[in-house]
Each structure stands twice: as C-alpha cells, then as structure tokens.
Amino acid sequence: MSDLNRGIMKFEGADKPAIVAVSAVIVLGSIAVLILWALKVAYTVN
C-alpha cells in the first residue's frame, strides 16, 4: 500500500497518476478561483 492510499484517499487506485493529476487540478483551480475572486472584490479589477 502506498502512502497515497491512506488518509482521506482510502480507496483502491488512489495512487494512480490520473487520479492524482485530477485532484491536483481541482485543488489548484479552486485556489486560483479564490485568489481571483478576492482580488476582484478587494480592488474592483475589471
């Protein structure tokens, strides 16, 4: 069992590169959206 198959990712195949990549895109995309939203709200950037 790899380290990626533990914690909240407790399902078979959690350490597959495709699933890791999709998770990374979702997390990084969410962070980017939050940063853009914060900048838009704080500075009224068009």
Oligomer: single chain
Radius of gyration, in Å, reads 16 Å
Helix content: 55-70%
Provide the residue-averaged pLDDT: 80
Which terms would index this structure?
46 residues; 1 helix; mainly alpha
Which secondary structure elements does this structure contain, and how are they paired or packed?
Blueprint lengths: L16 H27 L3
Describe this structure in words.
The chain is an all-alpha fold. Helices cover 59% and strands 0% of the residues. The chain has one helix and no strands. The protein is elongated. The termini are far apart. 0% of the residues are buried. The mean pLDDT is 80.
Short description:
About 60% of the residues lie in helices and about 0% in strands.
